[in-house]
Specification:
The protein is an alpha+beta fold. 39% of the residues lie in helices and 26% in strands. The strands form two sheets. Strands 5-2-3-6-7 form a five-stranded mixed sheet.
Length: 191
């Protein structure tokens, strides 16, 4: 089942009326339809299986870290239906097979494009890569700005939320974690 555009349109008209707006005002006439299309796009991950992006692998003897960093994403906080926007960093320690690098970005998009919390998103990406690729380890670090913290409530612009999920070698070996952090964030020695 896909997105019910008509139901969203009706709900948006009702919300506009509930906040004291006239949904028949010229500037708002097409808003319910635009919002329905936007939700279909923002929540498209609900109707896809992110594992499909990791099905095709390549046999490769590389046994050192593979890192794709700064994968930009936009998601929607399930608590307020407001966006959170950020970057995902994904590393894995191959065990005889690798995956196309763009596939990791596709996994991030598929998991981000659903009502989400950053903590769960981080775990879901790590667990999926671990189960599909069966590497010796996986690390996922996500940095994001949450508009539910910046434009409402506590209103703290500039605050950033960072979550991480470590599996296998990244969890068990501090030297591997340290190398990963240096590759993502730099060594911190600015001379």
């Amino acid at each position: 089942m896909g997105v019910d555009h008509e139901r969203i349109r009706k709900a948006v008209r009702e919300i506009l009326a509930a906040v004291g707006e006239d949904p028949d005002r010229e500037g708002l006439l097409e808003t319910p339809d635009r919002v329905a299309r936007m939700y279909a796009e923002l929540f498209s991950g609900l109707h896809t299986n992110p594992a499909i992006h990791l099905e095709k692998t390549f046999t490769q003897k590389h046994d050192e870290m593979v890192l794709v960093k700064d994968i930009e994403f936009a998601s929607c906080c399930e608590h307020h239906l407001l966006p959170f926007i950020g970057k995902a960093h994904i590393a894995y320690l191959p065990h005889g097979k690798i995956v196309g690098l763009s596939k990791l970005a596709r996994v991030v998009d598929a998991i981000a494009r659903r009502p989400q919390v950053q903590e769960r998103m981080t775990e879901q990406i790590a667990d999926l890569i671990m189960s599909q690729l069966r590497p010796r380890g996986v690390a996922v670090i996500i940095e994001a700005d949450h508009t539910c913290m910046t434009i409402r409530g506590v209103r703290k612009p500039g605050s950033k939320t960072i979550t991480s999920s470590m599996r296998g070698g990244f969890l068990q070996h501090s030297a591997t974690r340290t190398e990963l952090m240096a590759l993502i964030f730099g060594r911190g020695d600015r001379g």
